[in-house]
Amino acid sequence: xxxxxxxxxxxxxxxxARSWLxxxxxxxIIGIVAILIAPVSGKWVPDVAWxxxxxxxxxxxxxxxxxxxGYFRPAAYVFFPLYPLVIDAxxxxxGTTHVAAGIIASWAADLAALVLLARLWREQAGExxxxxxxxxxxxxxSAFFLVAMYAESLYLLLSVGAYLLMRKGRWGWSAxxxxxxxxxxxxxxxxxxxxxxxxxxxxxxxxxxAFWRRALWSLLPVAALGxxxxxxxxxxxxxxxxxxxxxxxxxxxxxxxFALGYALIHIFYGQGLPLSxxxxxxxxxxxxxxxxxxxxxxLADKLYVFFxxxxxxxxxxxxxxxxLMSATRLVMPYFxxxxxxxxxxxxxxxxxxxxxxxxxxIFLWVSYTHWLFAG
Length: 375
Description:
The protein is mostly helical. Helices cover 65% and strands 0% of the residues.
């Protein structure tokens, strides 16, 4: 009798892992070469070996200080607590520095997110479109933030995991991941939209008892977000301090249409180029993709993308020259768009899109490593 063969991961998982590794190595090598050619000085120097330092810039300093010292000033409340808690947990387990722990956490979350995305997209649209969509995501101009010391990969992991569970009818576990996402970034609560939409579709009769039992799980993410608001209230006297502190980055609440119009005027007069063009183009592109989707995306996906992109547009940065500051990065986790784009583009157009976005990502990544604002 032959011994059982060793476990082999599914093909989609192997493809996702290889794609993750190749993209990470490409970003890493480019970043190291960039800082060797033009060394960085005069900025916050991460407490980590130089070979990892390109991954920690800008908001990484905020996450580092929150993980190391707690919420040290009011502006820090803009950064939700889950990622700093994960950083500190990884630091205690590995015995490394906070910055190295943050980078490790982002790499691990990115790998897990890509594997789950590959599974989700394979079930939803088949192997061919799954591979295309994954390449589009990894080539996206802000995709390097998934392996930087930023919270993007953790949020992507939680949202994709929640999606997989809600599509399989595991409402309680999905709600738990949404609760975690809601204390990872503010608009994680928007994942309740697809949860309720899938619960609605799964009900034989609308608003029957089964629907309401599923919908009750939505209270868990609301409670999680509420806990952070209560924490903020007792610490600084304002439950929505994370909203009040947006002014630190010149952000002010306006209508989404106003933000787009103001960004267009800024671009017309040549301010904040070229990043401002990208920050305007990506949210508009995301909205156009779901508007002209060819039936691949269910209503749940379209609701999540629409309101997620809208939440990015309602607080432009005025009078800062980057009106839709960070919009390219902030809309990236609304992953259903990449599957729809893969479905829209023909072979040559798909390859061209990957090349153009990849080239733009290299430009932004090199800028990021040298402390030039890149989102």
